[in-house]
Amino acid sequence: QVRLVESGGGLVQPGGSLRLSCAASGFIFSMYAMAWHRQAPGKQRELVALIDSGRNTNYVDSVKGRFTISRDNAKSTVYLQMNSLKPEDTAVYYCNHANCWGQGTQVTVSS
Fold it and tell me: Which of the residues 24, 35, 46, 100 could staple to 96 if both were Cys, CB 3.0 to 4.6 A apart?
């Protein structure tokens, strides 16, 4: 049974940083791509960043140069380092593998 558990969200001021973590279990983590999505109030869920099994990465344009996705296969964990946060980054952030989703972690960027 696939399980994804996010952590690391919170309230941060504009320009600040947060690191999200997603601990995965129930599948051979190293073999698969992992992704972070986010959903802001009143908006559709969007793909933020993806990392494949070869550690190739892809980002939505709005976060390029500010966010970094990485993975630790030994810990079956994927991370999202978020720097220079903006109010428009406020959303619930979800970890994703195939058609499985975590419970989400709230990120709020506000002064």
Answer: 35
